[in-house]
Write a structure and sequence with these properties.
Elements (H helix, E strand, L loop, with lengths): L3 E7 L5 H16 L3 E7 H5 L3 H15 L1 H10 L7 H22 L3 E4 L2 H12 L6 E4 L16 E4 L2 H9 L7 E3 L14 H8 L6 E5 L10 H5 L8 E5 L4 H9 L8 E4 L5 H6 L3 E4 L3 H9 L4 E3 L6 H12 L2 E3 L3 H11 L2 H18 L4 H7 L3
Parallel strand pairs: 1-2, 1-3, 3-4, 4-5, 5-6, 7-8, 7-10, 8-9, 10-11, 11-12
Protein name: UDP-glucuronosyltransferase
Keywords: Glycosyltransferase, Transferase
Subcellular location: Membrane
C-alpha cells in the first residue's frame, strides 16, 4: 500500500511559520509512520536568489522600523488580499508550483503562511482538486489568510475562530486545534539529566529567548536581569546570531557562573523543563511551546501586529505579563524565589493549559483528511 503524502508549504518571514510546518510534519509521522511529508518554503525553493533578499529586507524593517510593519499589518487587516495581488502571485508562481505538485502528488496540501496559501487557493480556483488546509500560526487572524477555496482552517484559539467568522469565513470551515509543536515538546524531560547536559544548577532559573534578530541586547530590562545573577540562573538563548553571542560574552555584566549564553539549540524543550520563567518575544510558536510546558512568560518588544495580539491573548489567559520596566523584572523574579507561590501558579497554569491546549489536536485534524 502506497504512503499517504502531505505537502506542507511555508515562507521564511520569521521562523515560526516553518517551525509549525515541521512540527506538523513530525507529528503526523510520529502518530502514523506510513505518512510521507514534504516541507517547503515555497518562495525560497522556487526562487533561491530573490527570496532571501526579500526576507532579509523584512528582517531589517522589523529590527529598525517596527512601526512600519505594524502599519502594513493593519492596513489590510479586515479584508482578504485583493485580486490584483493574488493574480500577480499566480502568474509568478503558477508554472513552477504546478510542477512541484505534479511531482510530489500529495493527497492534501497544508499551508502555514499566507503567501503559499494564496497561491494554492488560486490554483484551486483554476481546478486543482487537492484539499487545502490552512494552519494560522498566531493568536490573531489577518485578512491575508482568508480565501474561499480553503477547505479548513486550523486555528489556535476561539478568539481566532471568531475573527475569521467576522471576516466571512463559515463556522464549519474552522477547527480550533491549537498551533502544532514538535513531538519532543509533548513529553517532560528528566530535569537532573538536562541540568547535567547543560551544566546547570538546581536553582530558580529563567530562560531568555529572542535574540536571533539582534533585538535582545537592546532591551534594558533584559540587561537589568543580570542584577539577580547571585541567586538566579539566567540562560540567554540568542539562536543563530553569533554576533550577539560574542557581544554578550564580552560584556562584564554577563560574565558570571550563574549566567549561560547559548546559540542555536534543538533542545529548547529540555531547557523549558528546567526553567521557572520564560522571557521571550511573543511569537506564536514560542508562546505555544511555553504554553505546552505551563511556563509563566514575560513578553518584550512585540512586533506591532500579530505579536501584539499574541501578547494580549496570553496575558488575558493569565500566562504572563508585559516586560515594561525593571519593576516587572523584580516582581516576577521575587515570585519564582517564593516556592509556595510559584508552585501554586504552575499548578494553575497546568489546569489552564489542559483546558485550552492539546498538542495532538492539529495532527488529528489533518489525519481526518487522509
Amino acid at each position: 500500500m502506497s504512503k499517504k503524502r502531505v505537502l506542507l508549504l511555508s515562507e521564511g518571514f520569521g521562523s515560526g511559520h516553518t517551525q509549525a510546518a515541521h512540527a506538523l510534519s513530525e507529528g503526523l509521522k510520529h502518530i502514523n509512520p506510513d505518512i510521507s511529508t514534504k516541507v517547503l518554503e515555497l518562495g525560497s525553493f522556487l526562487n533561491p536568489v530573490m527570496a532571501p533578499l526579500i526576507i532579509n529586507a523584512y528582517r531589517k524593517t522589523v529590527s529598525k522600523q517596527p512601526k512600519v510593519v505594524g502599519m502594513m499589518y493593519r492596513s489590510n487587516y479586515r479584508k482578504p488580499t485583493n485580486r490584483i495581488t493574488k493574480s500577480a502571485l499566480h502568474r509568478l508562481f503558477y508554472t513552477q508550483t504546478t510542477k512541484v505538485i505534479e511531482r510530489l502528488n500529495p493527497q492534501i496540501i497544508v499551508c502555514t503562511h499566507p503567501v503559499p496559501n494564496m497561491i494554492i487557493a488560486k490554483l484551486k480556483e483554476h481546478g486543482l482538486p487537492i484539499p487545502l488546509l490552512t494552519v494560522i500560526t498566531d493568536y490573531d487572524a489577518h485578512g491575508s489568510w482568508v480565501n474561499e477555496e480553503i477547505n479548513q482552517y486550523l486555528v489556535s484559539s476561539d478568539v481566532v475562530k471568531d475573527r475569521l467568522m467576522d471576516k466571512g469565513v463559515a463556522e464549519h470551515k474552522i477547527a480550533v486545534t491549537g498551533i502544532p509543536i514538535r513531538p519532543k515538546f509533548w513529553k517532560i524531560s528528566n530535569k537532573e539529566e538536562v541540568r547535567a547536559k547543560f551544566n546547570l544548577k538546581d536553582m530558580p532559573t529563567v530562560l531568555i529567548m529572542g535574540g536571533g534578530w539582534g533585538l535582545l541586547h537592546e532591551d534594558s530590562a533584559l540587561t537589568y536581569m543580570t542584577t539577580w545573577r547571585a541567586n538566579t540562573q539566567l540562560i540567554y538563548c540568542v539562536g543563530t546570531n553569533l554576533e550577539m553571542k560574542e557581544k554578550l560574552e564580552a560584556d562584564p555584566l554577563f560574565n558570571h557562573p550563574n549566567i549561560r549564553i547559548i546559540g542555536f539549540t534543538n533542545q529548547i524543550n529540555e531547557l523549558m523543563d528546567v526553567c521557572d520563567l520564560l522571557v521571550t518575544k511573543p511569537g506564536g510558536m514560542t508562546c505555544t511551546e511555553g504554553l505546552s510546558k505551563a511556563l509563566p512568560m514575560l513578553f518584550y518588544e512585540p512586533i506591532p501586529g500579530q505579536e501584539e495580539e499574541n501578547c494580549e491573548y496570553f496575558i488575558n489567559m493569565g500566562f504572563g505579563d508585559m516586560l515594561s520596566d525593571n519593576d516587572t523584572v523584580d516582581r516576577w523574579f521575587k515570585l519564582i524565589h517564593d516556592e509556595e507561590k510559584i508552585s501554586q501558579l504552575r499548578k494553575l497554569l497546568v489546569q489552564k493549559r489542559d483546558m485550552h491546549y492539546d498538542p495532538y489536536n492539529c495532527v488529528k485534524a489533518v489525519l481526518q483528511h487522509l
